[in-house]
Design goal:
With 232 residues, the chain is an alpha+beta fold. It contains seven helices and nine strands; from the N terminus they run βααββαββααββαββα. The protein is elongated and about 60 Å long. Residues 1-8 have low confidence and may be disordered.
Length: 232
Amino acid sequence: MEQQIPKSTEGQLFVQYMAFKAAPEWRRMPQAARDDLRAAFAEVVQAAAPAITTYAYSTIGMKLNSDLLLWRKGTSPVAMQEMTSRLLQTGMGLYLEPTYSFFGYTRPSSYTKRPTTQEQAIDIEDRQTYLIVYPFTKTADWYMMSRDARQGMMNEHIRVGHEYADVRQILLYTTGIDDHEFIVAYETDDLPRFQALVIDLRATEARRYTLNDTPIITGISRPLDEALSMIG
């Protein structure tokens, strides 16, 4: 196994990244009607806080089948599902189709003794300009290797990551509860620098054991009202 399940789940967060695509009919509605419906959508997000914290990103022009990306964190998948249901039943929600949903739990890594500053982004409230949601799954051969062999390759992986200490990251464990095994989200103010990080990571030995790592979603941080207005 990748790591032992902790004896206590206290402190673990349930995190979800959900993307939405607006139907063409939405932009054909009168402006005043859309204003009211956007406000009702935003009210659901506000009402869910503080149990569920939501950050909004515009994905317009970044992904053809996505206009809006919501990053949400809380402790209960049940509450998250109920919030999603309320969002989809608002006037605006009737015109939004969920196109991607990535979710998982935070928990301590088995490869590091303590989280680095860049790995503590889940606890930081200020957001950087770009969010890149990056799902991936390891090959069966990865799990068949000894713990020491995996640790050696991860040490190289970690060393590369530390060279880009300004790039924040959040790792979610989703093994057994969704198609991917891990979801890693990166935050950065410099997209080319993040791209350089990925290029360097793909040159490490551990890359041989990546089964798949798509689809990748890139969003630009916006206040919720602004992200909704950009949809039209």
